[in-house]
Amino acid sequence: MEEKKEQEIQQEIQQEKINKSKDEVSKSVKKTKSNISSWLKELVDIRHDTDIEATIKSIKSNIAMKGHTAWILVFSILVASIGLNVSSTAVVIGAMLISPLMGPILGIGLSIGIHDVDTLKRSLANLAIMLALSLITSYAFFSIPIFQKLTPELFARTAPDVRDVLIAIAGGLALIVAITRPTPQTNTVAGVAIATALMPPLCTAGYGLAVHNLDFFLGAIFLFLINTVFIALVTYIIIRYLHFPMVKYINSAKRKNISRLASFVAIIIISLSTYKFYELYKENQFHTNIENYKLAIKNTGYVLIDESDNEKKIDFDKNEFPITVFGEITPKDRIKINSLKADYNLTNSSVKIQGGIDNSDIINEMTMLREQSAKTQNLIEGRDNFIKSKEERIMYLEKELRRVFKNRIPFTKISNEAKINYEELEQLSYSKMINTNFKTIDTITVFSIKWFDSIPKEKIKTQQVKLKKWLTARLELDSIQVVVK
Questions:
Q1: Can you give the CATH number for the domain in which 470 is found?
Q2: Measured distance CA(147)–CA(154) in Å, rounded
Q3: Which of 171, 353, 356, 417 has a beta carbon 3.0–4.6 Å from 326's, enabling a disulfide?
């Protein structure tokens, strides 16, 4: 009975220890979570130490497009136009480094965020000046006939793309966050990011005016305006997130009206921006689906032609696009090609399937090209084999040459040394003797010697043995014969 009670007491003690350990672990976990939460908050928090007054002052001071700023804008647009004309990324980036495009756009985002009507009017006016100066400069450059060639860099800025919008958003966020730091850092990276989204479209718009291409002009201006709206939008969002103080008006009725107007404008901008971003995303996805669809058609054995021309005829609004298949297209082919649309979310899209003319001249020319290619391939293979055989011959001769040089004996030097070591020598000859036992052939180095007649025969025998040993060690040869004349 006592043992049972003692066991129960021990179990209770053990359970208390377990509970205490659980509590300690729970507290440790909570503390760790709290530390991680605090660290993450400190890592991403940009409200701490934000210099609101300095930020507002910095943005307002850069809104004006006049004097030095206007000339810097003109020169940067000119440099960017040259870079686009020669398709030089380095030159365009150089223009972005000095471009003052962000001032009025940041002013628009700030003024809406703090309900500052005066700053909004000033920002819009300077944005118009900035747009006019940029268009005039790029128009003047591209009006020169030798600079009117359409380059890939210019063509790429004739229509908005979802990636351009992402660049504008990221660049705007980077810049406004850098400006609101305790120590303002309007760094070059953020400026280049914004200029990437704004400067090339402005130059392309000027090109469109110069070459009288309205589609280029409207497409580039639309891209510029879309990016401008998104940069102003992210500026507005950060300003509101950081709780910048609203501008106070003495007239309460006026303050309410301005507040309502600013809120209405902000809602309109956010709504239009969100809608346009979604539309651009869908259009980009539409083009991606078409590319994958064309690849699937090729994988089934069809050959597509005029792809670059058909790319320009893709109509996202009408949800249709053309493809041109080489050769004649039968109803069965059309059914097969159309059946692939469902795999790429193109079921509701209209595909204009065109058959290329099956011209016998083209087929004959292709056949001739194949034959010429086969002949060229055979010629190349023949040359490769010839070169290979020559290389093998060279390797063999090099090997033989090394073997010859290895077995070559410096006879003049050996004879001089032998005369010094063995003064009794009268003559020394050297030759190679080929010997065979009818099974193998061996080459033996033979030295023929002649001693002076006055030398005793006993001494000749001793000296001859020593000479052979010396020659074997000196020449590092295994087999040497020494014969007396």
A1: 3.30.70.1350
A2: 12
A3: 356
Whether residue 314 is found in the same domain as residue 182: no
Residues 82, 205 within the same domain: yes
In whole angstroms, give the CA distance from residue 316 to residue 40.
43
Largest CA distance in the chain: 143
Host domain of residue 309: 298-355
DSSP state of 412: H
- The contacts found for 272-279 with CB under 8 angstroms, 24 or more apart, are 272/229, 273/229, 273/230, 273/233, 276/160, 276/165, 276/226, 276/229, 277/162, 277/165, 277/230
Is 120 a member of any domain? yes
Is the alpha carbon torsion for 124, 128, 134, 138 positive or negative?
positive
Report the domain count for the chain: 5
The answer for residues whose C-beta is within 8 angstroms of residue 226's C-beta and 6 or more apart is 160, 164, 165, 168, 276, 280
Rounded Cα gap, residues 68 and 62, in angstroms: 11
Could you please report the per-residue DSSP string of 234-266? HHHHHHHHTTPPPPP-SSHHHHHHHHHHHHHHH
Answer for the pair 201, 262: CB distance below 8 angstroms, yes or no: no
Measure the CA–CA gap between 231 and 237, rounded to whole angstroms: 10
Residues 327 and 368 grouped into a single domain: no
Between CA 223 and CA 283 the distance in angstroms is 14
Contact indicator for 224, 198 with CB cutoff of 8 Å: yes
pLDDT string in tens for the chain (485-residue length): 556 566 666 666 666 666 666 666 666 666 666 667 666 666 666 666 677 788 888 888 888 888 888 898 888 889 888 888 888 877 877 777 777 777 888 888 888 888 888 888 888 898 899 899 999 999 999 998 888 888 877 877 776 667 777 777 777 777 777 777 766 554 444 454 455 567 888 888 999 999 988 888 888 888 888 888 888 888 888 888 888 888 776 555 665 666 666 567 667 766 766 777 777 778 788 888 888 888 887 777 777 766 655 566 677 777 777 877 776 777 777 777 777 777 777 777 777 777 765 555 555 666 677 778 778 887 888 787 888 888 888 887 777 766 665 566 777 888 888 788 888 888 888 777 777 777 777 777 888 888 887 778 777 778 888 888 887 777 777 777 788 77
Answer whether residue 132 is part of any domain.
Answer: yes
| Residue 175 and residue 59 in one domain | yes
CB 121 within 8 A of CB 98: no
pTM of the model: 0.54
